[in-house]
Specification:
Beta-Lactamase, 12 strands, 5-stranded antiparallel β-sheet, alpha+beta, Heat Shock Protein 90, about 550 residues, rod-shaped
């Protein structure tokens, strides 16, 4: 999975939306408790039915004659048994009884009247013979329209079993009543009993009641009923619950995904605008589009737009301050210089002349500092207005090196230039000024008697210009900031004519204008420092 997506707003909202899955779990637990309640009610209901049937059959000696009613013709008994087998509502259960099924027509008519749907009633005499059997526990075959529902139910069973467990009941035979329950009823003990079926989800609950004639027990009534109606109710409720839950969850996920995607898109757009508004040098080059949204992100957009506007104004003030200072300082510097010249003409020698010379050197240094204050601004305006032209970079670098040899006769300049021309497009005067700043920086740090090495190499896409010198290495952590304005690694007073940390900033300004970059690294074994500028040739 994508790490950006995992840490994003959409994934976190997705996790938060999983709380909706608690709805089916809680509802399923409610349905489980409802099923338990219905099973208890069903158990009480069939116990009441068993007592009612037993009461209706009690004190009717004609239904339970002495000797079990077998004094008649055996052929007549067999005829009644065969007729009862075919007439029984549950022939499978009747057939499983064999000769123990000795139906009484009057009892069976009575059971047909008293019986109800989905229930099975047994009447057993003291000789353990079934005298009446009515009803069936078998479920009807699903109609054609119910087949898809049955398929859905079978598919949902594993899911339902995760949240709702069926009550545990002992196994049993569906076709016969519980023998122990009948025996207890024949000795006067009423009872209810649960047993299982072939379907693990369906159980059978049975209630047994004794039948009296006077004070004698002459038989027992057993009423049986399955939990299929409860199961059907539970299944229907769960199907509706799962369908509604799935629909709600899908809708909630879709809404949250759309909402999160919109939030993420707005935040990404704001991030991109903020990134593009400030260039690598920290200057405000763009702005943030303000939307009419009234939410927190809209407030953030308006705040950031206002902050960028104030920063742009402040940067403009700082950029213009150097030019203003330079302009304002030129007049007092000129006044001081002219006054010193007048004093020197009136007092040509002596101790006063020494002080005048020192003051003149200070004024010259101050004059150079004033010029450098506005140098970067002038160069930037020149680059913006200058037209790019094709020129030979090797010729420009070679000419500059020859000029350095003339300007600094006490220094050695080693040039490593390509044999052929290096054509490129740009502003050659700016390239020459870039090289001037690099050489001036090298002269300030290189020990006397060491060479300044200037090298130029090129490939079809870029040209690399470097200046190396012996001297102290760049302190750790300073190299990445050397090309920022007002940043210097010099000791106090080091350099010629004062230093403001603007020379290398001009180097980067020219390099960026020509589609390149600048870097500074220490040479191996402490042999000095290398400044390299990469320029795009296209």
């Amino acid at each position: 999975m994508d790490a950006a997506f995992v840490h994003g707003i959409r994934f976190r909202l997705f996790l938060a939306s999983l709380v909706l899955l608690a709805i089916p779990v809680l509802a399923a637990q409610f349905i489980s408790r409802m099923e338990t309640f219905l099973r208890g009610a069903q158990e009480q209901d069939i116990a009441v039915t068993a007592r009612a049937v037993a009461s209706a059959l009690s004190d009717r000696p004609a239904l339970f004659p002495p000797g079990g009613g077998v004094a008649g013709d055996p052929e007549d008994e067999e005829r009644r048994r065969i007729v009862g087998l075919f007439a029984a509502a549950d022939p499978v259960a009747a057939a499983s009884l064999g000769r123990a099924y000795v139906p009484s027509e009057e009892i069976e008519r009575f059971l047909e009247i008293m019986g109800r749907r989905a229930s099975r009633l047994w009447v057993v005499d003291t000789r353990s013979r079934v005298r009446g059997l009515s009803g069936s526990l078998r479920e009807p075959t699903p109609a054609r329209g119910e087949a898809p529902k049955a398929a859905i139910a079978s598919w949902l069973k594993p899911l339902v079993s995760l949240v709702v467990s069926a009550p545990q009941v002992p196994a049993g035979d569906e076709s016969k009543p519980v023998r122990a329950q009948i025996d207890r009823a024949l000795i006067g003990v009423s009872s209810t009993y649960w047993r299982g079926t072939r379907d693990r989800e369906v159980a059978i609950v049975s209630a047994a009641q004794p039948v009296f004639v006077g004070d004698d027990i002459v038989g027992a009534v057993v009423v049986e009923e399955t939990t299929a109606p409860i199961l059907l109710l539970r299944q229907s409720a769960l199907e509706n619950l799962i369908a509604v839950t799935l629909a709600v969850c899908v809708a909630a996920f879709a809404i949250l995904l759309l909402f999160a995607s919109r939030l993420a898109a707005r935040i990404r757009r704001l991030h991109a605008q903020a990134e593009a508004a400030i260039d690598a040098q920290g200057r405000i080059r763009g702005s943030i589009a303000v939307s009419g949204a009234k939410d927190e992100i809209g407030d953030l957009e308006r705040t950031m737009a206002a902050v960028l506007g104030r920063l742009r104004d402040y940067n403009a003030y700082l950029e213009q301050m150097a030019s203003r200072l330079s302009h304002e300082l030129r007049t007092p510097v000129a006044v001081v210089r002219s006054s010193l010249d007048n004093l020197r003409s009136q007092s040509p020698g002596g101790e006063a002349g020494v002080y005048l010379d020192r003051a003149g050197e200070g004024v010259e240094r101050l004059s150079r500092l004033v010029s450098r204050l506005s140098e970067g601004t002038r160069l930037e305006k020149m680059l913006e207005s200058a037209e790019r032209e094709s020129f030979d970079l090797a010729a420009v670098v070679g000419g500059c090196v020859e000029g350095y040899r003339s300007a600094y006769p006490g220094r050695e300049f080693a040039a490593d230039l390509p044999a052929g021309p290096v054509p490129m497009s740009g502003v050659p005067d700016a390239i020459a000024q870039l090289l001037d700043k690099l050489v001036e920086n090298a002269l300030d740090f290189a020990p006397p008697g060491t060479a300044i090495r200037v090298a130029l190499s090129a490939d079809p896409r870029t040209a690399r210009l470097s200046v190396a010198n012996a001297g102290p290495p760049i302190p750790p952590g300073v190299a990445p900031r050397l090309f920022d304005a007002m940043v210097s690694a010099r000791d106090q007073g080091q350099g010629r004519g004062g230093h403001l940390g603007l020379g290398l900033a001009i180097v980067r300004l020219v390099a960026v204008h020509h589609g390149g970059s600048a870097r500074a690294v220490n040479l191996p074994e402490g042999r000095g420092v290398l400044f390299e500028v990469e320029l795009a040739r296209s």
